[in-house]
Amino acid sequence: MFNWRAFWREEDGATAVEFALVLPLLLSMLFGIVAFGQYFAISNSLQQIAAEAARYSVSEPYFADRKDRAETFLTSPGGRFSFLDADHIINTEICVFPEDQTDCGVTNDFDAVQITLTYDLDGTAVAIADSFLGIGIEDITRRSYLAY
């Protein structure tokens, strides 16, 4: 005959049960930290590459070639920004002022460059977190404006 009293008083395996109950919460928190960190790293890198492209384009002495110089700079971000994949930069808008004022919706009377980059988050930890939580974060857009 089985001794039920001894079975219910037994504490062997209690730690394993507690760990099994807490593990999903710990893994969720760890994944959230990774996803937020990746979002922050991509966002910061995108802002930095937009700012560097704006500064790089200004070094072109011919006003008409500044847009091409910025586009050339943006073609290979991986060497300088390891968190960015050039294939995920889905929208690049480069405006050189004052000639592109009507296209970019900004009006000013001085020379400037504005670079707007949009990064697709598909395939990242942020996209996976978005699929679970339904936050609606599909891409990141950052802009850099440099007047000179």
UniProtKB/TrEMBL annotation:
Superkingdom: Bacteria
Protein name according to UniProt: Flp pilus assembly protein TadG
Domain TadE-like: 13-55
Alphabetical UniProt keywords: Membrane, Transmembrane, Transmembrane helix
Keyword Membrane among record annotations: yes
Transmembrane annotation, as ranges: 20-42
InterPro entries recorded: TadE-like_dom (IPR012495)
Pfam families, per the entry: TadE (PF07811)
